[in-house]
Write a structure and sequence with these properties.
The protein has 20 helices and 5 strands. Helix content is about 50%, strand content about 5%. Bound molecules: flavin-adenine dinucleotide. Pfam families: DNA_photolyase, FAD_binding_7.
Length: about 475
């Protein structure tokens, strides 16, 4: 089996530039490399037929295939279980090594171990590369050599390591080595969406693919300077919206960090704040890799003892939260944005997660699962980190006694109610004074504006002050037990 024959297996790295595994596979004279993607039937089986992410992946694969073809290659697209498909394809093509970029989620690690074992049994091997983060797993440690669990010292150590090792941002060259790309064999072209059992969603994620990510980033660079002051206001177009592209690798984290550093060095203060957000992403990936138990349990085991609400009332409250019927307009507007588009602004992810866990007293894992189902940018590490932060069960989390007041959050971050009006048209006529808490408004005034509580919009599900006391007691109970 000639070592020069290679297969590059794409997963969450759907781009043909600055791609570590692809660059490495092409980096040998006389190499011949095929590129492949597998629609994993095990994952697809659990998704709705109009899942936005499948549509996004499909559109991004079409763009990737076109670019690989421009360079003389193309994409082989299969549909099945990667544990079977990848070893079978490797055997069919007679390749020695399968190149892939590392994925740090527990299920992906198990899948890759399965693929590696099958390949090895056949005399082949799986070679994996760091691509989706700047520093992975054990690369940024405390002086004592242990993993960090607090963000700020992690960030300082991360920045220090990058200063000492700027080559961590060096792009992986593909274009100049493209002569090694091999065209796909007949009958392996990208199937239509319908051929894998899916349909286009009513509101697709746009723009998709590498050019979509590049266009979003260009647009964001015009506004990045103000990011520090505007990023918390969901009614503004102030954040990059690149999370779905980072999730599926249609952009390169190295490119984003390099650009943020350059723009920051030229005086755009917001770029430094934005860079911190990218470091949060590495931080949570590291937390998951070092502490895989967080996928199902609290980061701090003592918090597994929190007695979350259960039973029919909790089920009803949870259903109301999912549907955006809590009676708290900013919470409901945020859930409407999520349900209709698959995106939710970061401030509102914090608010809705806090509301579910601290106002309704419902287990963070239920909210985490709902977000996993709905978010276009869903990834286990950041979603879990965000939920455990809001629920006060995580590393470097919001202290359990500091509880967001949904009304204060609403007045502060959507002061004139523009975001609420956009997503809750039934409240659009309300003024800035009434819109945050319609139940406090004069009923006659509400009626004049065409809103009747209980008919057009729900009464609040809970009284925040009472809920806050219940939450404090819930956490106090485990504090005394510890
Ligand atoms: P920008 O403000 O432009 O930030 C740039 C990038 O930095 C983001 O695209 C993202 O990759 C990263 N980033 C920003 N904030 C965070 C953060 N707090 N943690 C980790 N990375 C961050 N992000 C996901 O990518 N997937 C998720 O499943 C996810 N679930 C979340 C759940 C909760 C409860 C919370 C509080 C946050 C979650 N986040 C998640 C983080 C954050 O809300 C999103 O990354 C961000 O809103 C995406 O919008 P943007 O691309 O415009 O972000």
């Amino acid at each position: 089996m000639p070592k020069s024959k290679k297969l590059v297996w794409f997963r969450r790295d759907l781009r043909s530039f600055d791609n570590a595994a692809l660059g490495a596979a092409l980096d040998e004279s006389g190499a011949q490399a095929w590129c492949a993607f597998v629609f994993d039937t095990g994952i697809l089986a659990g998704l709705p037929r109009d899942d936005r992410r499948v549509h996004f992946i499909h559109a991004s694969l079409a763009a990737l295939d076109a670019d690989l073809r421009r360079m003389g290659g193309g994409l082989i697209v299969l549909h099945g279980d990667p544990r079977d498909e990848i070893p079978r394809l490797a055997a069919r093509l007679g390749v020695h090594t399968v190149y892939t970029n590392r994925d740090y989620e527990p299920q992906a690690i198990a899948r890759d171990a399965g693929v590696a074992a099958r390949l090895e049994a056949d005399g082949r091997r799986l070679a994996s590369f760091k691509d989706q983060v700047i520093f992975e797993r054990g690369e940024v440690l405390t002086q004592g050599g242990t993993p960090f669990s607090v963000f700020t010292p992690y960030k300082n150590a991360w920045l220090k390591r990058l200063a000492a090792e700027p080559q961590a941002l060096a792009p992986h060259d593909v274009e100049s080595r493209a002569g090694a790309l091999a065209p796909p064999p007949a009958g392996t072209a990208l199937p239509g969406l319908a051929d894998i059992g899916f349909i286009a969603p009513p509101a697709p994620v746009e723009p998709a693919g590498m050019s979509g990510a590049a266009a979003l980033f260009d647009h964001f660079l015009d506004r990045i300077g103000g990011y520090g002051g505007t990023r918390d206001f969901p009614a503004l177009d102030a954040t990059s919206h690149l999370s779905v592209h980072l999730r599926f690798g249609t952009t390169s984290i190295r490119h984003l960090v390099r650009t943020a550093q350059q723009v920051g060095a030229h005086g755009a203060a917001g770029a430094t704040v934005w860079l911190s957000e990218l470091i949060w992403r590495d931080f949570y990936a590291m937390i998951l890799a070092q502490n895989p138990h967080v996928a199902t349990q609290a980061f701090r085991p003592a918090f597994d003892g929190v007695a979350w609400e259960q039973g029919p009332q909790a089920d009803e409250d949870f259903a109301a939260w999912c549907a955006g019927r809590t009676g708290y307009p900013l919470v409901d507007a945020a859930m409407a944005q999520l349900n209709q588009t698959g995106f939710m602004h970061n401030r509102l992810r914090m608010l809705t997660a806090s509301f579910l866990t601290k106002d309704l007293g419902i287990d963070w894992r239920r909210g985490e699962r709902y977000f996993a189902l709905k978010l276009n940018d869903y990834e286990l590490a950041s979603n879990n980190g965000g939920w455990q932060w809001a629920a006060s069960t995580g590393c470097d989390a919001q202290p359990w006694f500091r509880i967001f007041n949904p009304l204060t959050q609403s007045r502060k971050f959507d002061p004139d109610g523009a975001f609420i009006r956009r997503w809750l048209p039934q409240l659009a006529a309300l003024g800035a004074r009434e819109i945050h808490a319609p139940w406090l408004a004069d009923p006659a005034l509400l009626q004049a504006q065409g809103v009747q509580l209980g008919r057009d919009y729900p009464w609040p599900l809970v009284d925040h002050e009472q809920a806050r006391k219940r939450t404090l007691a819930r956490f106090e109970a485990i504090r005394t037990e510890r």
